[in-house]
């Protein structure tokens, strides 16, 4: 094999990406790059469904619990770090596996980050003040009006992402989505993207089962240890923000769990919308036999 290949596994949350990545890593005798931005943080294990200790032993992983929630770690930092690791690994391996449901982080490695114009920093300050006084929903409504495409595709429950999109809209007078890269940049490897999916009911059932398992495994206790850091952006995410509401007495545990399930389902829908933009993705039902997937991959690699 004369070329290097990055096999990128994408798909909605709870679909089985981690299990598939380990099977493929073992088959190709290689290592795994995680592109799941929530699994970077060592304090967040249960609520992010990070690989278990057994899974981490089954194949070597990179970018799992390598940062603290107190660290300032951006998608730009990840792109640089991931490319450095890939460069080193490709000296020894022809195939590397990348897995993760964070579309922006996956694209940062496979396509490169988009270039945005600089805008007046006072715009972000104003938006942050608006978030504080009016709440996230007001910003979401504003983004929906200015840039419906971004409203549909970005992590709309993440204030940082919403504010970033809005500041570009307001600072340039053009939609944030109009600045998104239309073509890939050159990379010293070929990317084969495979996606796992299922019908909506099965995806939602798997999400509900995973959330119940998280609660049984001690999600509430994990979040309780982090409540003093609840304002941090890393913790403003599904599975944590809802339990913070329970711990503060605003919600019952039953309602908090139901909200985690609902928000996870919404997240899965956005993930599929994002990943289906890539027309080159090879999609498989989540129950597809591993031999079928390997055969499809080898036909691409040997082409």
UniProtKB/TrEMBL annotation:
Molecular functions (GO terms): ATP binding; tRNA dimethylallyltransferase activity
Residues the record lists as binding ATP: 11-18
Catalytic activity: adenosine(37) in tRNA + dimethylallyl diphosphate = N(6)-dimethylallyladenosine(37) in tRNA + diphosphate
Source superkingdom: Bacteria
Interaction with substrate tRNA as annotated region, ranges: 36-39
Biological processes, Gene Ontology terms: tRNA modification
Record's keyword annotation contains Transferase: yes
Keyword set includes Transmembrane helix: no
Annotated site residues (Interaction with substrate tRNA) in this chain: 102, 124
Cofactor(s) this protein cannot do without: Mg(2+)
Residues annotated to bind substrate: 13-18
EC number: 2.5.1.75
InterPro entries: Dimethylallyltransferase, IPT, P-loop_NTPase
Keywords associated with the record: ATP-binding, Magnesium, Nucleotide-binding, Transferase, tRNA processing
Subunit comment: Monomer.
Family: Belongs to the IPP transferase family.
Function in brief: Catalyzes the transfer of a dimethylallyl group onto the adenine at position 37 in tRNAs that read codons beginning with uridine, leading to the formation of N6-(dimethylallyl)adenosine (i(6)A).
Name listed for the protein in its UniProt record: tRNA dimethylallyltransferase
Name of the gene: miaA
């Amino acid at each position: 094999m004369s070329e290097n290949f990055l096999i990128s596994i994408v798909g909605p949350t709870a679909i089985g990406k981690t299990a598939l990545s380990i099977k493929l890593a073992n088959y190709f005798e290689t290592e795994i790059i995680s592109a799941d931005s929530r699994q970077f943080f060592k304090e967040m294990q249960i609520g992010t469904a990070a690989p278990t200790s057994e899974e981490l032993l089954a194949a070597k992983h990179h970018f799992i619990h390598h940062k603290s929630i107190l660290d300032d770690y951006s998608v730009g930092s990840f792109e640089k770090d991931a490319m450095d690791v890939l460069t080193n690994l490709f000296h020894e391996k022809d195939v590397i596996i990348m897995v993760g449901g964070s579309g922006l982080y996956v694209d940062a490695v496979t396509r490169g980050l988009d270039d945005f114009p600089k805008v007046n920093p006072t715009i972000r300050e104003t938006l942050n003040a608006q978030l504080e006084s009016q709440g996230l929903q007001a910003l979401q409504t504003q983004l929906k009006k200015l840039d419906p495409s971004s409203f549909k595709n970005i992590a709309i429950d993440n204030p940082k992402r919403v504010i970033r999109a809005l500041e570009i809209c307001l600072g340039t007078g053009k939609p944030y989505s109009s600045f998104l890269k239309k073509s890939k940049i050159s990379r010293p490897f070929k990317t084969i993207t495979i996606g796992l999916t299922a019908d909506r009911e099965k995806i939602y059932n798997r999400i509900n089962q995973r959330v119940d398992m998280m609660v049984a495994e001690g999600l509430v206790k994990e979040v309780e240890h982090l409540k003093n850091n609840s304002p941090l952006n890393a913790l403003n995410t599904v599975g944590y923000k809802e339990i913070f509401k329970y711990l503060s007495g605003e919600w019952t545990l039953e309602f908090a769990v139901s909200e985690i399930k609902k928000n996870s389902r919404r997240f899965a829908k956005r993930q599929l919308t994002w990943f289906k933009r890539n027309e080159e993705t090879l999609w498989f039902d989540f129950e597809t036999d591993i031999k079928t997937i390997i055969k499809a991959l080898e036909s691409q690699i040997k082409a």
